[in-house]
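Hey, can you fold this one?
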Amino acid sequence: MNINLTGKQAIVCGSTKGIGKAIAIQLAVSGASITLIARNEEKLKATLPLLDITKGQVHNFIVSDFSKPLQLQASLEAYFSNQAHVHILINNTGGPSPGAVSSANIDEFIEAFKAHLLCNHILVKCISEGMKAEKYGRIINIISTSVKMPLKGLGVSNTIRGAVANWSKTLATELAPFGITVNNILPGATKTERLLEIINKKAEKGNKEAAEIEAEMLEEIPAGRFGTAEELAYAATFLASPLAGYITGTNIVVDGGRTGCL
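Sure. Predicted structure:
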């Protein structure tokens, strides 16, 4: 299969590190022009030169903080007022801090809801009419395997990921007649800063060494290793392509076999 995204415009959120950055790089390799979105301008500027331009791609970025949904909306409206239609949207942002759901405070849920569900929806509202006009759209949400089985110690994250998954399924049904697909990628334990944060938090709480927590996590993964951001990027690039036009409203698990259900 030859994945060719030449002429396609993609938005990739949370694209200065980890999974988001890997997806932006891979989409560009396949020919897409990328608009990066993140809150740190210096990191955005540092990521831009890493994107392939050999197929005539033009890349840019938007500085926006997902804790401020209305700011994101204003930034998008200003940026895309004179831009071509967007064909691919990668919804991706850092997860809430680890912790038990029973001890979470209300503000943690509110902040998670804003950064994930509200910002995802603002992005879709901003670009979906253009996708309809192009009769081509790929909305891909990077969520978590907790959509299938809640993960211990990630109470707020489990809650908001489930909300995003059901929003996504509803959206897929509504947009399918227009040639727009909506799918979720569910990463398992992937070597990113987020994974390191989780490991260190568990080690601190359990009075253990980080290496011990890491070994315990690896025992739960049939593949015997953590995933890489690049492996998630390959899945996203396929879903973003014309080859995946009949795949919509589903979850793609990329976790080395860890999740204990189909």
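Helices lie at 18-29, 41-47, 69-79, 106-134, 155-175, 193-206, 210-219, 229-240. Let me know if you want another pass with a different chain boundary.
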